């Protein structure tokens, strides 16, 4: 059965394999995004703009847990797929076991250590006297039980890399629909407030993990828990490979915290509420691009292990074309339907509505460049060019972003704050183009130097 799985990836056309991974991955991520937006809609309509802002302020904690699961999960899965491509099956089993054990231990420890300091953490994240009660309620459950969705997220990545993208999608669909249902019950029926929203997220993730566990009963399953000795060298390799994914999620936290603080300073609670609406919408687009990256990661990792450069190049071309097309469509949608998007989240004061509407129209410029950046980051990560992958993630939402956020709002006010991410994405894309041109010239020079003299 091992040979069947390997044979399919070796013999299947790149286009067919890309679609086979792209469709369930993107559908799953979009449903997950709809789930996040549904959270925002329910919280906004049931508890109001201040509660919505409070949940938005606490969101970086959720993001941090996801970051940990991606750090070890993507790192482990990339190594797992490369070993499968190289036909080193037993080593792949050890990588899987090592990665899952590490995720559980690390995320449980983080939650327990930080929990006693949740009040200080709330204010550090940007809470004020109005939003603090909501931030505190959300953090309470997330810190105690955050390890649940880190395990679920990491297992989903592993299942997808083991040739079951459809099961990973089914798990995401189950998680999303259950979360929406539980949110309605906890918020509108039982009136549990923000704690109810957090509980719904955690319970839904637990059920999603149970769905993923059915993969272990498949005959062609290669995700085997085996006995292993802690291996520092292997763990370091997993961490190095997965670091760009971790940094991308940390970047989301930096993005959220920095924007919350800028908007709180420029426009008060109304500004924070407007940004919270944008952030929910942004999550949809971001997860769509992440779905595209998730689709090529198993393929590029496997082809890299098999040393098949032609298939890697074809996969990259398909992914960039798909991402750029999606980005253009997202941009157009934002320009024409910004007001409609904002109104879905609740009947907010005119000031909030105007801020959020103009914000969406400006911010959506970023999607013209963001998809290509995501695909290239995944490509570099999956082929071992970790430095370039790290640069892309560090620059997009940390280094370049923070520089722009310190300059643009001073010059252009709120408009400058909205434009920080679009300009950051453009700058990063230009560095990628420069790097690719430089690498092409370098390869050509090497080929000329090593060519036989005529």
From TrEMBL:
Membrane protein topology class: Multi-pass membrane protein
Any Pfam family matching the protein: MatE
CDD domains from the UniProt entry: MATE_MepA_like (cd13143)
Subcellular location: Cell membrane
Molecular-function GO terms, alphabetical: antiporter activity; xenobiotic transmembrane transporter activity
Gene Ontology BP terms: response to antibiotic
GO cellular component: plasma membrane
Membrane-spanning segments: 21-38, 50-74, 95-118, 138-155, 167-190, 196-213, 234-257, 277-297, 318-346, 358-379, 391-411, 417-435
Keywords: Antibiotic resistance, Cell membrane, Membrane, Transmembrane, Transmembrane helix, Transport
Cross-referenced InterPro entries: MATE_fam, MATE_MepA-like, MATE_MepA_subfamily, MdtK-like
Family recorded in the similarity comment: Belongs to the multi antimicrobial extrusion (MATE) (TC 2.A.66.1) family. MepA subfamily.
Protein's recorded name: Multidrug export protein MepA
């Amino acid at each position: 059965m091992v040979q069947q799985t390997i044979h399919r990836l070796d013999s299947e056309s790149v286009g067919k394999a890309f679609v086979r991974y792209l469709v369930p991955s993107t559908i799953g991520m979009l449903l997950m995004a709809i789930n996040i937006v549904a959270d925002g809609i329910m919280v906004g309509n049931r508890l109001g703009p201040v509660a919505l802002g409070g949940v938005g302020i606490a969101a970086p904690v959720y993001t941090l847990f996801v970051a940990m699961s991606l750090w070890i999960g993507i790192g482990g899965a990339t190594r797992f797929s490369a070993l499968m491509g190289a036909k080193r099956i037993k080593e792949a089993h050890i990588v899987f076991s090592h990665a899952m054990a590490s995720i559980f231990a690390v995320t449980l420890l983080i939650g327990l250590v930080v929990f006693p300091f949740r009040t200080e953490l709330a204010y550090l994240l940007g809470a004020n006297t109005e939003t603090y009660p909501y931030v505190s309620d959300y953090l309470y459950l997330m810190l105690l039980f955050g390890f649940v969705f880190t395990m679920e997220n990491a297992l989903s990545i592993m299942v997808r890399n083991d040739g079951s993208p459809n099961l990973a999608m089914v798990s995401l669909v189950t998680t999303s629909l259950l979360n929406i249902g539980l949110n309605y019950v906890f918020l509108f029926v039982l009136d549990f407030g923000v704690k109810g929203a957090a509980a719904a997220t955690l319970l839904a993730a637990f059920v999603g993990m149970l769905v993923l566990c059915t993969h272990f009963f498949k005959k062609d399953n290669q995700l085997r828990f085996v006995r292993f000795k802690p291996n520092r060298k292997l763990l370091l390799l997993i961490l190095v490979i997965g670091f760009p994914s971790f940094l991308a999620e940390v970047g989301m936290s930096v993005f959220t915290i920095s924007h919350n603080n800028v908007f709180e300073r420029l426009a008060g609670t109304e500004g924070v509420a407007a940004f919270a609406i944008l952030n929910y919408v942004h999550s949809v687009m971001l997860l769509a691009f992440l779905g595209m990256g998730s689709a090529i990661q198993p393929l590029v990792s496997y082809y890299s292990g098999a040393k098949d450069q032609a298939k890697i190049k074809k996969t990259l071309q398909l992914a960039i074309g798909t991402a750029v097309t999606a980005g253009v469509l997202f941009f157009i949608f934002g320009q024409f339907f910004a007001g409609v998007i904002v109104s879905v989240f609740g009947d907010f004061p005119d000031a909030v509505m105007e801020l959020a509407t103009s914000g969406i129209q400006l911010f959506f410029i970023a999607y013209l460049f963001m998809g290509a950046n995501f695909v290239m980051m995944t490509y570099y990560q999956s082929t071992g060019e970790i430095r370039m992958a790290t640069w892309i993630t560090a620059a997009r939402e940390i280094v370049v972003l923070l520089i722009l956020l310190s300059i643009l709002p001073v010059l252009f006010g709120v408009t400058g704050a909205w434009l920080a991410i679009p300009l950051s994405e453009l700058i990063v894309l230009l560095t990628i183009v420069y790097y690719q041109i430089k690498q092409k010239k370098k390869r050509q020079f090497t080929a000329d130097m090593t060519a036989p003299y005529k």
